[in-house]
Amino acid sequence: MRAKITYLVTAAVLVFYFVLVGSRGVMLIQSGTLLTVTFGVAVLILPVIGVWFLWKNTQFVRRANQLAAELEAEGGLPVDELRRTPDGRIDRDSADEVFARRKAETEAAPDDWRSWFRLAVAYHDARDTPRARRTMQRAIALHDGRHLPA
Questions:
Q1: Which residue, among 103, 116, 12, 112, has the nearest Cα to 64 in the 3D structure?
Q2: Can you name the residues that pair with 84 across neighbouring β-strands?
Q3: CB neighbours (10 Å) of residue 7?
């Protein structure tokens, strides 16, 4: 729940920023000189890119949560079997062990979105966020009946 609240607050702050920057871009364009119109258009590009990025991330999170709910309903969510350090962090060796099992599971069933989902969780636990995200995108695509290039 804390992660959802943090995401919503961050998204709200970003939307406020996009509106603020967008209004400045419009003001620059309304000034009417070649220089201010050029700057105004350039300034308007930033919120457009930001809105697109926020939209894509929101879709990704929503779809990943849907897959997690479906997997939970099936009883297939990965069990947290990771050892923790005294300060609560995941033990790296433990994460590596679980990752090796998840990778073998995915190699044995490369068209099963469930194994890709569990592998994405293992990547996340191993603190490899870029690979976790790509792997979750593959799980989403497989769930939707699409195939991503390897």
A1: 116
A2: 90
A3: 13
Distances (CA, A) of 22 to 8, 57, 108, 142: 21, 21, 50, 37
Round to whole Å and give the CA distance between 82 and 80. 6
Task: Domain of residue 62: give its range.
Answer: 1-67
Task: Measure the CA–CA gap between 41 and 38, rounded to whole angstroms.
Answer: 5
Q: Within a domain: residue 149? A: no
Model pTM?
Answer: 0.80
Per-residue model confidence as pLDDT tens for the chain (150 residues)? 788 899 999 999 999 999 999 999 999 999 989 999 999 999 999 899 999 999 999 999 999 999 999 999 999 888 888 888 888 888 888 888 888 999 999 999 999 999 999 999 999 888 889 999 999 999 999 999 887 666
Both 41 and 103 in one domain: the answer is no
Q: How far is the C-alpha of 124 from the C-alpha of 128, rounded, in Å?
A: 6
